[in-house]
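Usage

Read records sequentially. Each one opens with the input sequence:
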Amino acid sequence: MDLDLAFDDSDFQRKEELKVGQSTSYNVKMCTELWFERDPDEEDTEYRIQQLKFSGDYNYFQGNFEAATFKYQELLDLLPANNFPVRQDVEESLSRCYMKLNRHKESIQTAQKLVDMMKVYDEAKQRQSLILFSQVCKCAKDWPGCITALEQLAHHQSHYAQFWLDLANAYYQYSHSEGESISYNFQVRIVTCYIRARLLLESVLNTVGQMTKERNQKLIAEIDQELSHLNVSSELIDQAAEITRADIECQDALSTNGDEEDIEEKQKEKEKFCEEAFFKRWFSWAGKGLP
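and closes with the structure output:
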């Protein structure tokens, strides 16, 4: 049987001879250090866009927020209207620059514009813009704006503990900015948010990794400390814990065993946010109306 194992003449050719006629690799563009800080090429818009994006990000992470602001502003003027991903990123970076420079009015306006832009896109993009808005409002101590953003975030992702924890803190800060004592309505809001955050963190302790478990335990301890510092009755805390625990168990059961109609109905409820409906859904158990 012929296994075709014989040597061919080409096997003995030198490598140099074999290279003849082969295509060569393309010339890779070499970028020198800080190439984006060189004089701009005004005729090449695409190249200028790349320069401004790299330069803006570089200055931002170097802490040169004023310089980064100018780069991002010029970049937004050059970006095509259909280049949405880059525009979203640049608008967010610009808002954070304003925040770092304590230019809070401009920071909030830019973040609000981004929230308005995201309304026609998917929930993930809406969530990202609302998180930014809550952060810049918190930095500016604009507690009503911060609360509005966090209520929407908690409305759409009611099983995410961090939103409830941040909302409790925002309610607390806002209530103190309005006066020395905390009204009953805000006591209910703060306690409910803290309790819900704590129960959600506790519910996953046995299913997460060690690092996340330690972080959750630390947050739970901080929540218990905050609750102990509130001038509220233990009966209110116990009642909030009982009702909130039952609500979480009901939601878990529905997501696991609920029929399609129930799930679709719950999803429709989540699609639109209304402050009054939010209060009724989460805080009306205490038997009080809106302040």
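Summary fields computed downstream for this record:
- Residues 40-140 form a domain with the Serine Threonine Protein Phosphatase 5, Tetratricopeptide repeat fold (CATH 1.25.40.10).
- The two ends are 96 Å apart (CA to CA).
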